[in-house]
Amino acid sequence: MSELLKKSHVSSAELETLLQEREAGKTDFLLVDVREQMEYNMGHVKGVDMLKPTSTFQSWAEEFLKTNRDKTVIFTCRTDHRSGNVQRVFQQNGMANVINHAGGIVSYRGEIERS
Prior knowledge:
Blueprint: E1 9-10, H1 12-23, E2 30-33, H2 37-42, E3 44-45, E4 50-51, H3 57-68, E5 73-76, H4 81-92, E6 98-101, E7 112-113
Parallel strand pairs: 1-6, 2-4, 2-5, 5-6
Antiparallel strand pairs: 3-7
């Protein structure tokens, strides 16, 4: 497993590296975008596994925790504020391997997809 996945946050450059490693089968993690659907549609990091908007956090958080408690999860958003908040909540609820994408999509220079 990549040493980067042991950090509490990763930069955009590190996220690009991790996505390349995952594509090559060298590492495994979930990349979760916590922005809103409209923001996601305007452009998201290529490789996002799921969209989980913070506006509906109450409706998905408990099930997400149950399903993904033992997985490594990287949260991303626009700047890293919302993803950082989501990271803290999951850490406080026993999820050990949660990582915040520092700088968010505004700092990301890798491939962007649009819906």
